Each structure stands twice: as C-alpha cells, then as structure tokens.
Amino acid sequence: MEVDKGKGEAEETRKVAEADRDTVTLKSSDGKLFEVSKEAAARLSTVLAGMIAGGSIDDNGTDLKQIGSEALENVVDYCNKHANSIPSAALISSSISFNTAPFKEPEEWERKFVDRLSHDALFDLVEAANFLGMERLLDVTCHKISEMMKGKSPDQIREVFNIKNDYTKEELEEIRQELAWAFYDD
Amino acid sequence: MEQQLEGRLAFGLFTSINGEGASLPEDALYEILPRLPAKDLCRLRAVCRPWRSLLSDPNFIAAHAARHPDQPLLVVVGYQACKKNGPVICDVVDLSGRVVKRVHAAGYDDGIRTNDRWVRLVMCTHADLVCVADHGFAMSCQLLNLATGAVHTLPNGVAPKHAAQVQEQATDLSCYDCLWIVFGLVPSIGKYKVLRLVQAVEDSGNDTDMEEEDDLDDPATLDLYEVLTIDGSGQASWRGTQPPPYDLESAYRDSSAVTGGIAYFMLPDDCWDYDGTELGLVGSFDLEREKWRSSIRGPTSGYRATTLKDIKIASLSGHLALCCCRASSSSMDIWFLKDFHKGSWVKQHSIKVSLLHVPNVAQPLLMLNDERIEGHIESWAVLENYIQKIDINKPQMKRYVAVGLYGGNILSLANRILPSS
Asked: Where would I find the F-box domain in this sequence (chain B) (predicted)?
C-alpha cells in the first residue's frame, strides 16, 4: 500500500492529475505515504471528506501528524476492504457522549479485521478513527474492546488497560461486598 | 508489547499507572462501556473512582438502558422488619438468588422504632417502588424508591369526606385500619395512583368491654375506598371513591395485580363457583377514571379450578394473567386476558411444575416473551427454589410477605455504594 513518490514530476502535471485522480495520498507522522480511494475516504471519514471538499488535500501526501504509520496502514486497509464489501453499508449516526441509538453489530469481515490486531494496534486504530471522524471504524474497534472487557475482573481490566487503582484497600473490600453478586459468573 | 502498552489509555477518566499521555479520546470510553451488560458494569465500578463516577452517572445509566432494552430480571422479596426478624425490609435478588441490594427499614437502624410492637412490612411492589407500612396501624404508609432511596410518605388520615361520614354515621368507630393497598402507573398521565381499602373500626382498647354488646344493628366496621395521585408535590391527599360492586373486604394481599393503569383483584371465593360461570372471578378498578368495572368470569373452556389457592393473578408482559395450577397433570396454565369487554381469555402458556412445588406455587412474576420462554420457565423454577431455600436453609432470613418483579434499572439500583469521593 505504501507508495514511493518520485520527486522528478513537474508541479503542473501533478496539479492537473490531482483533479482527475480517484485516490488521495495520506502521510503518517513518521513520513510514510499511503494511497486510498477518494470515494471510500470521503464516505468513511468526515474529516477526509471535509478536506477533499475544501481542496486541502496535498498531492505530496496530506499530513496526518497524529497518526503513526501502522495505524494509518490499518485505516487505509479498512477503507479498501470496506469499499470492496457491501457498498451501501450504512454509517452509524454521529456519536455524542451518551449515544442512545441501538448498537450496530460489526460484520464478519470487520470482526476478522480487528481480531488480528494487537492491543497496541487496536488502541492506535481507535485513536486514528476518532481523529479522522470514522464513525463506523470507531464503532467496530470499540465493539472489539468491549468484547475484551466482558467477564473480566477489575484486576484484569486494570492490567490490560493500564489503569491505576485509586481505591483504598478498605474501599475496595466494601465495593466487593456490596457488589458480591456481580462478581459471580452466571 | 506489554511495555508499549503503558500509558496508552488515558481518557482523563482514569489515571494510568505511569500517568502518561492521553492517547485515546474520552469519547472512546463513552462508546466502549455502554456496550457492556449491566452486570459487567457494576463489577467494573471497582476498577477506579473515575469509572465508578461514570458508571453511576444517571445520564450514562439512562443511555445504557435505552441501548439495552432487555434488562436482567430482578425480584423484590419483601419481609417484615421487626425486633424479631431484624431490620431488613426487602431484598432485591437476581434469578440465582443472589442479593443485589438489601434494604433496611427506615427508623430501625437509628433506634427510633425498635420496640416489640413495631413491625414494618412490605405491602406490595411495582416497578422500582415498594410500598411499606406499619403493621397493625397500617395507615402509616410509604413508597420507597429502591433505586434513588427516595421515600415518599403517603398522607396520614383518611379522605375528608370519609372522616365526616364516619363522624356522622358511626361515632363509635374511632380507629382506621388499612386492609390492603395497591398502586400502579397510569400510563395516560405518567403518574402513580394508589388505591386502598380502609376500615373504620372500634378502638381496640374497648374491645373487652364492648364485645357482648348488640352490634347487629350498627355495623361494627365501615369500609372506605380511597385513591391518591402521587404527583411529587407532597400536597396530595386521599380522595374517597365509590365502593366496588363486589366484596373486596377479604381480598388477599397477593391476589391483586396492576397493569395498564387497571388494578385487578381476585374476588373472594364466595363470588364465584367452581365453574366460574355464574359469578365473576376478577374485579377491577380503572385508576385513570377512578371507577370500578364490572367483574369478569374466568376462561370458560378447559378451565377447572378446585380451590381458590390454585389460581393466582399476575401482570405478565403488560397483560393480566390468570394462572391455574392443575395438580393432576403437574402443570400450570397461564391465561391472558385478551378482551376485557368480551371477557375473553387465551391460554398463552402451559408450564410444567414439580408436584412438590404446586401447593405453594408463587405468583408468576416473570415476563414470558415468546422468544424467551424457555429460559424463563427455568428461571421461574429457580426463583421458586430460591424462595424455598430462604425459608429452609437460611433461618436468619425472614418469611417473605410480598414478592414482585423489580422494574427499575440494575445500575441505578446498585448505585450509592460508597459516599461519593
């Protein structure tokens, strides 16, 4: 997916080509370039759609300084896979802090797409999806993380997600006693 | 990779171990956590304080409930709180019999009311509200919201109209006793209404002297039916309403059900015969219009009840259900009232019950949606086992006096674990 852009091309040629091209080039924080279908980018990312419409796409590679190459590769990969799946796949509604719309289950290929990722890559992808306003990808990745949390003990959650325990021992014991029923498996 | 993970997730909603970075947006946690079932979320309150704050937030809980219409089933088991039984007025249990919330009677723990006579008991339950009363002089009633802890004290005294009537007609009746009380949501106005039967009686202090007096001419008691609208203002007062066109004086505590703004009552056994053909089996009161409705008969075919205790009414899936046990075939038939005006019933389910359980079959509580029926039959049995278990295996627990399905939210219920930090 990574492309090596030659430096010899003339500026004029490039500008003409830009208008007709059906792909956009994205540049990761570590300077790697990725090409993605313009149609898919506009459809799946509100941020990229805005940039394309506003003409702020740089043919040399649009700088996405907040996104590392591994995450950007996954983003582009997702866009391409999405373009090849059911084209009419609806986006979920824009999410605010407390969304009340019913959850949309990930499709099979989307499950497989996130299942192969390491925790690290998954968390990076959440961040990238959020930055680029990719609601559907955010939905899919958050679903995966929630699956990881299911049935876990508070200890396990703190370990996996690197969270500091700010309770005192006594408070924790009190919570465990009060919520004892929630600590049993059904 | 574990090394790299450090400091990755820091939403501002919690502190990472090394306190670094904010690589994931807070929005993500708002998107992730609502996907988890309520039970997981209750457990995850033990992760850290910021999580507990989020997972206890009423807005979060409301949004979670909207996205998880199938809440876990919980049952309210009401007791009598008194010196002998202890301070617990009710337990909310899950279907495995585990106590989700234990509620103490107000006034017990602080020592105000721990005398021998004082007994507080659960009269009835509905949604996330429980109605508790002082036994013996049950005119002192409260609605307890299990989720918020709010206590709504129902006004003392009787309706002014009734007070005047008693004074005028029966001066020897100086005490009031509440025989039963039911309450339910009136969907059209979005408010709860309470219906009760109050009996004006002679002061019990004079009983021994007055016992042999001729009381054939004068009624020894006077039945007063009263309604109250709970509007949250604290200004509500009891209103007198007409007596029913049938005898409800001896209605049992567990022989009523409220659904769709209608309170239904099993009529006492002298109001119906074994075929249910001559007299009505079920009476009802329209809480919205505050009018009694004519009694209706039981199902006319395939329906044979031997004794009243083999029939219970209940509110299931928004229907009035009539549950008839047939010991001969170890089964319980559940009939739904399909059309009140035609008095038509439809046999909706037939549930196998153990012969051992038949004699004290509980009021069926559980929603029996068609797609979920298998699990709920099972749960129903578990629930019944649980009730037996608390009587037999846990002598420290009291005999229950009321059972109801908890209609509130499990996350709200499990709130208020610790004082907020």
From this structure: 18-64
Question: What sign does the CA torsion over B175, B151, A172, A143 have?
Answer: positive
The answer, yes or no, to whether residue B202 has pLDDT greater than 80, is no
* Residue ranges of chain B assigned to CATH 2.120.10: 70-413
Q: How many CB atoms lie within 10 A of CB B265?
A: 23
Q: What type of residue is A99?
A: N
Question: Taking the model in full, what pTM does it have?
Answer: 0.68
pLDDT at B367: 44
Burial class (CB within 10 angstroms; exposed 0-12, middle 13-18, buried 19+) of B218: middle
Which one of B24, B66, B414 has the shortest CB-CB distance to A123? B24
> Cβ contact (<8 Å) for B47 and A145?
no
Q: Are B1 and A119 a contacting pair at CB < 8 A?
A: yes
| Confidence band for B285, pLDDT divided at 50, 70 and 90 | very high
Q: Residue B64: closest CA among chain A residues belongs to which residue? A: A100
State mean pLDDT over B82-111: 74
**Which residues make Cβ contacts (< 8 Å) with residue B204, sequence separation at least 6?**
B175
Rounded to a whole number of angstroms, the distance from the CA of A16 to the nearest CA of chain B is 38
Nearest CA in chain A to B26: A97
Q: Tell the CATH topology of B2-66.
A: Monooxygenase (1.20.1280)
At B115 the pLDDT is 54
Those residues with Cβ within 8 angstroms of residue A87's Cβ, 6 or more apart along the chain or in another chain: none
**From B15, B66, B94, residue closest to A100, measured CB to CB:** B66
Instruction: Report which of residues B246 and A77 the model is more confident about.
Output: A77
CATH, residue A138: 3.30.710.10
What pLDDT is attached to residue B46?
92
Predicted local distance difference test score (pLDDT) of residue B317: 72
Span(s) in chain B for CATH 1.20.1280: 2-66
CATH number of B70-413: 2.120.10
CB pairs under 8 A between A and B: 148
Q: Is the residue at A173 inside a domain?
A: no
Quote the DSSP letter at residue B364.
P
Give me the mean pLDDT over the B147-171 stretch. 83
Contact assignment for A176 to B67 by CB distance below 8 Å: no
Cross-strand bridge partners of residue A112: none
Number of separate domains in chain A: 1
In a domain, A3, yes or no: no
Q: Measure in Å the smallest separation between the Cα of B35 and chain A Cα atoms.
A: 6
Interface test with B, best of A134, A181, A186 (most B CBs within 10 A): A181
Residue B50 φ then ψ, to 5°: -60, -35
Domain that holds residue A141: 11-150
Residue A129 within a domain: yes
| Higher-scoring residue by pLDDT: A52, B388 | A52
Model pLDDT for residues A30-49, shown as the tens digit of each residue: 999 999 988 888 889 998 99
pLDDT of A28 reads 92
